[in-house]
Design a protein that fits this description.
By secondary structure, the chain is an alpha/beta fold. The radius of gyration is 15 Å and the shape is globular. The chain contains six helices and twelve strands. The model has no long low-confidence stretch (mean pLDDT 95).
Amino acid sequence: MIGIINYNSGNIKSVANALSRIGVKSMYVDSPAQMNSCTKLILPGVGSFGAMINFIDDIELRNPLIEWINEGNPILGICLGYQALFESSEENPNAKGLGILRGKVVKFTDGKVPQIGWNKVCPPLGSSIIPKGYYYFVNSYYPIPIDEMPMSKTSYYTDFASAIEWQNITATQFHPEKSGKLGLKLLRRWINAN
């Protein structure tokens, strides 16, 4: 079963609908017991970094989620769900991210903010999950990873890591569930990956 972390906001219905379109059943998860019945998790995201982290803490999901990921179980972070995997964000400096990935989330300093619309994603050579092409973005912030890992690149007044594929973690700053056939292809690849 694919679990979608329900942090009381965001794009969970869009993600569930996208999974349904490719024939995949999912369930909303807001407790450790529900999480432990899943084979893969999706951490979606629309909203504020601080509000999301606070909700995860309020429902006591932080430590079980970190443990679940550190045990090697597959997770897909989407947009804010990608950012939450890092240590901190300029959006809410007092909110402590999950810290699964080392690095920080910073705000775009040039161009129209937020970035809204389609932009090109160039995955690293050998990417098995993220196809090259145009995906839909809505973001004012983006992560800067510290560690070396396979990263997709996108340019919006600066080059940034628009996605990562590292060990059991796949995470995208863009929204696969809103990116048409290419986004569904990405979700299908992630579902089918070991």
